[in-house]
Amino acid sequence: MSSLATNIPEIQLENVEMRYRTEAAEVLALHQVSLDIAKGEFVSLLGPSGCGKTTLLRLMADLIAPTGGNIVVAGKSAREARLAQKYGIVFQSPVLYDWRKVKHNITLPLELMGVKKSLREEKAMELLDLVGLQSFADKYPWQLSGGMQQRVAIARALSMEPEILLMDEPFSALDEFTRERLNEELLSVWSKVQNTIVFVTHSIPESIFLSDRVFVLSPHPGRLSAVVEIPLPRPRTAEMRNSPEFFELIARIRDSFEGV
Ligand SMILES: Nc1ncnc2c1ncn2[C@@H]1O[C@H](COP(=O)(O)OP(=O)(O)OP(=O)(O)O)[C@@H](O)[C@H]1O
Questions:
Q1: Is residue 185 classed exposed, middle or buried when 0-12, 13-18 and 19+ CB atoms within 10 A define those classes?
Q2: In angstroms, rounded to a whole number, what is the distance separating the alpha carbons of residues 104 and 47?
Q3: In this structure, what is the dihedral angle of CA atoms 211, 243, 245, 54, given to the nearest 10 degrees?
Q4: Ligand 1 binding pocket mutation candidate from 17, 20, 59 (most atoms within 8 A of CB)
Q5: ipTM strictly over 0.95?
Q6: CA 64 – CA 239 distance, rounded (Å)
Q7: Closest by alpha carbon to 215, among 45, 38, 99, 20?
Q8: 175 with 145: CB under 8 angstroms?
């Protein structure tokens, strides 16, 4: 499998600026960020704490509005794209409802949209199959491990078949072994769903393993300091993490931090 990226632009940011104003102070969280993400591309937003990764993701999702610049998503404004349900979002914590069975957590967005019960259940089973949790459909979230809960959150985010999946450090609370396994599973899901993924992380190896391109952000003020192409072939395999190419990419990205 090669990358799913096309030449069609999916997300375009031009000179985006974000200033948070509080009573106490004003924070320039993002300064003059311009970037393009192609339809079907897998990109990561990488950087240390406070460099504006979450802010950038929230801007793309139209959860907040920029104080400057322009955002175009699938040829529309971010707001129009949100209303057209172009996005699925996965947060750092899975935010599942403990009193709803796993399958009913997944079908919640469909329920809110008024989709028929039989169709909802069918979709839930399809999504559980996709994330390898079919036999857990009737369990409750508290009966699942942290990694399984995050897979449920991914399945739920995919329930509306979003063109774009925005993921904010979804695996950072998990142990290293589970995280690496979920990275592999996420790529397998992506190869089937074939959407655009924007993945926030502060892990250099995670960003390399997953992405077609890594957007490196630097803090104070948050800005785009480098864009690194990841030429590793797909499908990516666990062994690639030990290859000389992988270590070279880690060094290149580290250098791009040191250069700022
Ligand atoms: N609602 C807010 N009001 C005021 N300042 C904010 C707000 N949200 C974020 N900030 C500030 O904007 C900057 C960027 O924050 P953001 O959360 O986007 O960074 P991040 O790279 O995602 O950090 P982390 O990795 O710690 O989550 C930080 O200085 C932060 O304190």
A1: middle
A2: 35
A3: 30
A4: 20
A5: yes
A6: 40
A7: 45
A8: no
**Could you identify the atom of ligand 1 that is nearest to the CA of residue 54?**
22
Q: Could you give the CA distance from residue 131 to residue 190 in angstroms, rounded to a whole number?
A: 11
Ligand 1 centre to CA of 52 (Å) is 6
CATH 3.40.50.300 fits 1-86+162-173+189-260, yes or no: yes
Q: Taking the chain, what is the end-to-end CA distance rounded to the nearest angstrom?
A: 35
> 185-225: per-residue pLDDT in tens?
999 999 999 999 999 999 999 999 999 999 999 998 999 99
Q: How far is the CA of 147 from the centre of ligand 1 (A)?
A: 25
Alpha-carbon gap, residue 90 to 109, rounded angstroms: 13
Q: What is the pTM of this model?
A: 0.94
Q: Could you tell me the strand order of the sheet in which 164-168 lies?
A: 87-90, 164-168, 196-201, 42-46, 213-218, 223-229
* Ligand 1, atom 17, residue with closest C-alpha: 54
Residues 5-58 pLDDT 10s: 888 899 999 999 999 998 888 999 999 999 999 999 999 999 999 999 999 999
In the reported structure, the alpha carbon of residue 221 is separated from the centroid of ligand 1 by a whole-number distance in angstroms of 11
Neighbours of 7 (CB within 10 A): 7
Give residue 89 CA to ligand 1 midpoint distance, Å.
18
